[in-house]
Amino acid sequence: PMVFFWSEGEEKSLNVPSPQSGGKQVRYIFNRWSDGLSKNHQITVPEDTTIYTAYFDTSYFLKIDSEYGTPMGEGWYNPGSTAQVSIDSIAEDTVNVRQRFIKWTGVGDGSVNSSARNILVTVNGPVVQTAHWTPQYYLTTQVVPEQTGSIVASPSHLWYDGGTEVGLLAAGKNSNIKFIGWSGDLDGNTN
After folding, report:
1. N or C: which terminus of the chain carries fewer CB neighbours within 10 A?
2. Which residues contact 169 (CB under 8 A, 6 or more apart)?
């Protein structure tokens, strides 16, 4: 509280800073003065002791931590508000590596733990939502010389989560073409 001793009849300005910090991820936004006037207004000092009260609304920050992708929904929210939070399912990393979203974990009142990319967070206090990712690798195969056979991957995808075991089978175009071996990141002669 602030106390001022002013003379009756003087013209004074009432003003308060807004927003005001309430600590980590909390702020207070000016709502109104007790006399119903705007944040910055003039008063004439009355004869009697008068109390002017500034009322503030609380808002909380929803922080989104993500090493990849383009998260949406971070910002300031009023208590009880529902925030729509979303993120890409795939985020490009390098030429042959990308990241696949796997889940949200949250901390704070109203936070959400979910494997869905799009979630609703009820912001009842400061919240931190963290996106978790797993790397995926692009598998390329090539038959040398070209046009002499094919390679079948099982399971058959272009992108694989790190740690996925992939079976490869090389087959010649005809019975005269025989498999000799693997080279590159995979080597050996077992088909």
Report:
1. N
2. 151, 152, 154, 191
